[in-house]
Specification:
It is a single chain. With about 375 residues, this protein is of the alpha/beta class. The chain has one domain: Alpha-Beta Barrel (TIM Barrel), CATH 3.20.20. Helix content is about 35%, strand content about 15%. Helix 2 packs across helix 4 and helix 4 runs parallel beside helix 7. The C terminus is likely disordered.
Length: about 375
Amino acid sequence: MLYDKLTINGMTVPNRLVRSATWEGLASTEGFVTPALENVMLELIDGGVGMIITGHIFVAEQGRAGERQLAIYGDEYIKGLRSMVQKVHDRDGLIVAQLAHAGGQAAQAITGMPALGPSPFVRRDGESCQEMTENDIDFMVYSFQQAAARAVAAGFDGVQIHAAHGYGLSQFLSPHINKRTDMYGGSLENRIRPLVRVYEAIRYVVGDKYPVMMKINCEDYIEGGLLLEDSASIIQGLEMIGLDAVEISGGLLTNGPTTSSVRIGRFDTPSKEAWYREATRVVRDRTKLPIMLVGGIRSFSVANGLLSEGLIDFVSMSRPLLREPDLLKRWSSGDLRRAECISCNKCFSVLHKNEGYFCPIARTESPESHVSS
């Protein structure tokens, strides 16, 4: 199953391994593509990944999440993005642009603008964000739409809407964060409204024959947060209006290490892997959409088993492919040892030092494996 093709709205993915969106920290300070970032993408394609989903690309200046994040909020970014995409295509690879707005978690120190969320809330840095006006929400929707048009112009094979992990759209979905009393807060119908508007705005500019996907939390795993039943309803509703595929994740940026989307620890037995598999069973019963599952999948047996039982359609990985971009090639050669990633999160320590996103363990073992920016 892992090596089987599958088509998403006309895009044929050569196998079922997806590089889940990963903030590489290798764009220029202004958000442009760099040779180092291109090299990461090519290394993944050479390693056998069926489809790359880029790190979160910010669609508006005020929605930027951090340093050296890739940008798509202006036409000036299209040229560099097109060059990167073309190099991936030259090696017969597929690459999807993840479009994101950080909302209330935006990097105010970098943007020089206040962070805007659905409601004021205390951010992970201890500061509070401001509440979006209806005009702010309109501009966020417009920004996603224009970013999608630029992604098409750059040649991306599809787009993924980032609605997970406590970024902008995820904040609207979460009752823990969204305390609004207008048409964007309260009921699930209201909380989903910005996401539906973003999807419809994107679909309007990209057309029916272009893959549009979404990443969403199965649950927020925090008191008062988005629950599984609501998440399943959201996915079911977006399927009805034309969404092409969904990636299941979970947790918020402010969650602790046991409930975040990047948990720490050795997931060295099958029962410890695939943190969201049981939640995904609920989603699977509600939708026929292709499902990608990210979170703690480390072994060939678990990956192939989840696919074979029909629970999911794609295996998404992030940290394991940072450690071993050629993991699928290794498995296909007959070496079925589990992924070498030990989920220590040391990759985040270097990322936050603006050294780019790489595995320090791999670099220690093989210095040439680190791509300098």
